[in-house]
Amino acid sequence: MTENKLVFVGIIISSKSLSELSVHNGYIAVDYGKITKLGTESEYEQLKKEGVFDSYKVVKMSSDLFLMPGFVDCHTHAAQFPNIGLGLDLPLLEWLNKYTFPLENQYGDIKYAASIYNKVVRSLLINGTTTASYFASIHLGGTLQLAQSVINNHQRAFVGKVSMNIENDAGYYNETKKDLEETENFIKAVLDYKNDLVQPIISPRFAVSCDSALMAGLSELSDKYECRIQSHISENVDEIKHVLNTFPCCKHYTDVYDQCRILNQRCIMAHAVHLSMEETATLANRGVSIAHCPASNTRLMSGLCPVRKYLESGVVVGLGTDVAGGDNATILDAMRRTMDVSAHLELMGQSGSALSWSEVFYLATLGGAKALKLDHKIGSFEVGKEFDALLINVYETNGPIVKFGPTYNTPQERALHLLQKFIYVGDDRNIAHVYVKGHKVKDVLEDISLLN
Ligand code: GUN
Ligand code: FE
Fold first, then answer.
1. Best probe residue, ligand 1, of 105, 161, 205 (max atoms within 8 Å of C-beta)
2. In a 3-state reduction of DSSP, which class is residue 449?
């Protein structure tokens, strides 16, 4: 028996699309990180009889457990974790200048960077985030520490060295040539790690911190290395005014990035709270995804992002925690806040806006994988995909979920109740195992058989 060959038997839940959940009582076999077989419980019994699983470690889940895909956080700032919960009574641009830039400026200290980043990556994994897209800081050495932490802890991630060349009070910016050189060196260094879970992502902060020469240079690097690119767009009304004043030849915020050739299929933009229909259509046409960050949009009073409108316009949307603008680093929280913000839009008269628990489950898993262009590898359970998964123990004794009394008519009904309870009420205590590419990175339930 080897941990490289695993079979899980029990309730398995994943999304097929925004409107379709897959819930089945069956099995999933994983060989060296990849899903090799899926089927019903009786098919499992038959194969077991034939000895097919003799060399596998079998995880039999009791009826209070289920397996689901790992969470995808499409946007967070690893460097900002020490500020979580601070200064959220300021609007975006003041918050950045007063709290964020001075903190990020400390990551020139490699030891400091290493200690914070290791904690960040561990904390995300414990909370079920198997894939993250990170902004770090403007420092090459410090950001490589984040890539190392991701590798050491076996997370799947995009890691971005932040690019900025516009002066600010904190003195936190680079000269253009230096930034482009360091970004290229960062990309090469991460590619040289030859680790298939970690990839570099080009990260122009936003059009307030970057001029068009820097953004055009970064776009060339993105083409040269076929590298992903991430930034912020249209988050806050004052930010939009500032950008339009700085780039008077551009029709709107989206046009600024478009003219710098930032917008392509490898690009993901955070926030997008205040886009016009024309801007939305441009993002859809260019294949740009949106990372929806409800916690930070609310805390910094940026606005209510119309996610349903974007989805209906053909834009791919995933969820982001956006720490430290966001005050919670977990995707469970992002799911709940996505439901809340969308419900508030509906209550304010935007009919059809509200997103359901099963829709936010999609956004947190397969939607996020699509937004990061990783859905060929992760986001749901299909033969050939890599096994990034969470084993959820719904009624964990010390956890927050109270057992549901009545009996169920069907196993399907029971599974849907378990999933809903986890989405609305669960926390890290309910996340018993976390797997990234078949590798167990969290285990608070050594002996599953105890629960049988
Ligand atoms: N826009 C530019 N930088 C940032 C950041 O660090 N956080 C948020 N929320 N918005 C930004
Ligand atoms: Fe952000």
1. 205
2. helix
The CA 233 to ligand 2 mean position distance, Å, reads: 10
**Atom 1 of ligand 1, nearest CA residue:** 232
- Estimate to the nearest angstrom the gap between the alpha carbon of 128 and the chain centroid: 10
Q: Of ligand 1's atoms, which has the minimum distance to the CA of residue 135?
A: 6
Q: pLDDT tens-digit profile of 373-411?
A: 999 999 999 999 999 999 999 999 899 999 877 778 888
What is the rounded distance in angstroms from the CA atom of residue 73 to the CA atom of residue 372?
10
| Amino acid (one-letter) located at 327 | D
Give residue-wise pLDDT tens across range 192-237: 999 999 999 999 999 999 999 999 999 999 999 999 999 999 999 9
Ligand with the closest atom to the CA of 301: 1
CA distances from 55 to 38, 143, 435 (A): 17, 41, 19
CB atoms within 10 A of CB 119: 14
The ipTM (two decimal places) reads 0.99
List the Cα angle 245/248/249 in 5-degree steps.
160
